[in-house]
Amino acid sequence: MPRIRYRYVLAGCAVWALACPTLAATAGLSCEQLFAAAESVVQFRDQGYSLQQILDGLKGGDLEAKLSDDEIRVLRKTMTAVYLSNASIDEVTLACRQARGDK
Fold first, then answer.
1. Which of 8, 39, 64, 89 is most exposed by smallest CB count within 10 Å?
2. Mapped to the 3 state alphabet, what secondary structure does 13-24 carry?
3. Mind listing the pLDDT tens digit for each residue in 60-102?
């Protein structure tokens, strides 16, 4: 897949995750967004993209404007852990919900 098309796909995933209708009115990174990002990482990994290519997709654009530095750091750590199979998508979602006190 050409690099330009890859950027559009990743940007589309990020925009979808940020605009997800299930989000609360408050700004920030939700567990649903983290789940969607983790799913995208697995798909890109399975298509042969390197971790660096995926992480480079986080740079620039609206994503950095909408998320704090801490949220971007969490997103990068999550994407790395899922890419390297150190954590599953379900483990990421469960940890996020537990950290927020959700059931």
1. 8
2. HHHHHHCCCCCC
3. 777 777 888 888 898 999 999 999 999 999 999 999 899 888 7
